[in-house]
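Can anyone check this?
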Amino acid sequence: MNYKTETVTCNICGADDTDKVTDKGQHNLPINLVLCKVCGLGYLNPRWDAEGYLDFYKNQYDKYYRPDINNEKKANYKKNHILNRLKERGLLNDKATEILDIGCGAGANLLDLGCALPKAKLNAIEPSQDSQVILRKNGVQVLSDDVNSSWDRQISEKFDLIVMRHVLEHFLDPLKVLIRIRETLSDKGIIYIAVPNNLKPTQNLEKSWFRVVHTYYFNKYSLANILRLAGLEEIEIVEGDKYNDGEVFLIAKKSAKKIDPAISKEHYAEQKAVFDRVKKEQNSVSYFLKDKLRKV
């Protein structure tokens, strides 16, 4: 995979002042993870360009991350984390008529939402060609294979619910995407976003947690900040729960007024301290022995 690379600045504060974290990632694919010293956002820099990433998602991603895609079964919607979280907060709109799931894979979560909200039309944006075949077989309208395309010009209705589960961290320009998505949200619609929580990583950093497909590394601070810059405001942000303790998820709506981001170098210091501590622990002899014992 000899893709071209590009350099970028921080997607939140625009600064070009970073601290390198590592160049080691899952599957030994090349990464260059840095932390913004101004706001604490983690991101890959340099990284593959848009053409390279799109080719990888279309033709390589399933091989690395979804090898059993054609055997994927729809989960029991009564146990679906997204549904349960929305229900528990009284935010599952049974009158919803349009749902969009971005980066939905073969559509397990989207189809579960369809079971719970039978009046809703199901829409998807998904680059994987194999996933698109499965989605269409299940009656899902695939709007595009690229969130950066002109898919928003095709739609005539606004979405009552937009889902991005473990997707925002994959975008090359998440702020730009969120701004566009906001315009497709109905006035009373909500957005559900879940990403890995980089203040509380639950896997080996350099063997699993850090990935070439994760171009951004969010936590509760950076997630709230990018949301505000996009004209959205959080209804709630949660760091892990009984369903998944390794992610931070939020539910948001359109903001009626401008909310300034809370930029702080303390956020950088906190995130750096977490990465440094966990890397040191995972490179220790005791961690190596525990990992070997666990595998046995």
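Reply from J.R.: I decoded it. The mean pLDDT is 92.
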